[in-house]
Design brief:
single chain; mainly beta; Immunoglobulin-like; 6-stranded mixed beta sheet; 2 helices
């Protein structure tokens, strides 16, 4: 949900948010809607809430349950296409999320272009990234560089990447697995676990 300012002199935008988990996209961070008096009053069905905004800051919000892949922009489309993907899962109230990614050459018409389609699903304590179609196989344009899972209630004590221990960090309810060098054309499975005494 992109919320630009469209009036002169305005320093905040008022946004209607239905009930559910909501997140800032930049930076990735869960929004505590309980801080908004109007949201507490109308929590059953959602409410209008206000966010500070200016010419340099535009609220970009994501509803829980989505998985969004993106690349850091380059100076040109060609430069952007070879930047590694970062996949961000935004958990819903039930701890789930899903999304998909289609990669093609970005130039030919669909009927003349090959493509790859990747499925991404968070369920329970795992994220599974699975190629469903792998016809477009440019290795420079199908790299996975980082994974984030936002909306966790407690920090995991162990993270496995394809059954191997992975370096990770945890901050602001977000698990981050950085500096990856993986292919989106091969299945990637991330699992996490908690201390035995922790209630998830």
């Amino acid at each position: 949900m992109i919320n630009p300012i469209v009036e002169a002199g305005v320093e905040e935008v008022k946004i209607y948010l239905p009930k559910g988990n909501w997140y800032d996209f930049f930076p990735v961070q869960k929004i505590s809607l309980a801080q908004f008096p109007s949201y507490k009053k109308y929590f059953g069905s959602g409410a209008y809430v206000s966010f500070a905004a200016d010419l340099k800051t535009m609220p970009i919000l994501v509803r829980g349950g989505s998985i969004i892949p993106f690349q850091k922009p380059g100076a040109t489309t060609s430069e952007t296409k070879v930047n590694p993907y970062e996949i961000v899962a935004f958990l819903c109230e039930k701890g789930r999320a899903s999304g998909s990614l289609v990669i093609d050459d970005g130039e030919l018409l669909p009927e003349f272009s090959s493509f790859s389609e990747i499925s991404m699903i968070v369920s329970g304590s795992s994220l599974r990234i699975t190629p469903k179609v792998s016809n477009y196989r440019n290795p420079e344009e199908t790299k996975l560089g980082a994974i984030k899972v936002a909306g966790m209630t407690v920090a995991p004590t162990q993270v496995l990447l394809n059954s191997q221990p992975a370096f990770f960090s945890f901050s602001d309810s977000t698990l981050t697995i950085p500096e990856l060098s993986l292919s989106l054309l091969e299945e990637v499975v991330v699992t996490w676990s908690y201390a035995a005494s922790v209630e998830k």
